[in-house]
């Protein structure tokens, strides 16, 4: 057979290739083999009818925490395969759960074993996210070592993370906990490794001004994650985005949602969107707490932006093609010929679906995204509505449970 799998009649949105319309997508040997208005279904071993659904590149969530073995008490991690594949997410970037000290264990037990593609930002703190204090203690930060580990594992590591910036976490500033401490160390490691940084600017202390952070500290390509958390002065009371935000964007600094359990407020995000300042990237910051809070999943977080008025194609672009570019994996987040066949089939359900933020406030919503099928490297890894399955009356007896009993 010419193709292994054919997804027919779906509405394909592939922003990287400027495709937005009804198309068939054929897969062979785990790769995209053909995207065309019509592909002969007799050429495929398996055919799935996606009529009424959207067929998009597998979603890329560049801010999650997927190291469930990790003993960080304040932020238990989730399991990438269990929690992400069923939501259309085929690639994720763990945002600094580990530092260089534990990276090999993380690689062995999570990165190399997951079906979901797991990449990572390496935490600038040697021991990663063990607690808030350790993440600010500059004696635990070794930019040279971090850079050499990133250079040694370019397949897995996309850049440097510093998190929960809180120089006041210790009683006073001192040589071990100076202003800009973890931020400067991360940027130094980014410079040495030739990669970008994702910075969680924590509590945004007064002696480390936010405008200086985005216009002077961050380099082009660096990311401020959690941009619409309440503590960041991104937009004024009249709903006007501050000039330094535009200046930072002009310089190439990137702004990421990183929703999480405490980092998205409509009063900032909705206002910014209305003033024409969308986030560059949509991401969840999923961990064991945010997954049952306001963030919930990549599709839920995307649905929030869709219901705030972001056009559908833009929502998809900021969750696929754009994050792929940002992490320097341009082969991902597209349905280009020859690229890895990572695909999400999603539908939009109309109804009363309100969305909440981390300030316990909500917006009225009229639709939600739902994952119908997820394909990873050409294989169906989630099919919760049985799009690829026959009705039970027509199902051949001997295939039932087959894979489990063999
Ligand atoms: Zn995070």
Structure explained in plain terms:
The chain has 406 residues and is an alpha/beta fold. The chain has a domain at 59-326: TIM Barrel, CATH 3.20.20. 22% of the residues lie in helices and 26% in strands. The chain has helices at residues 80-84, 103-111, 143-152, 181-193, 210-217, 243-251, 266-274, 298-307, 312-317, 321-326, 402-405; strands at 3-14, 19-28, 31-36, 44-49, 54-57, 59-64, 89-99, 117-123, 157-162, 196-200, 223-225, 254-256, 343-350, 355-356, 362-363, 367-376, 379-382. Strands 1, 2, 3, 4, 5, 13, 16 and 17 form an eight-stranded mixed sheet that branches. Helix 3 (143-152) packs parallel to helix 4 (181-193) and helix 5 (210-217) runs parallel beside helix 6 (243-251). It is globular and about 70 Å long. The protein starts with a strand and ends with a helix. The model has no long low-confidence stretch (mean pLDDT 94). Zinc ion binds at residues 63, 65, 95, 260, 285.
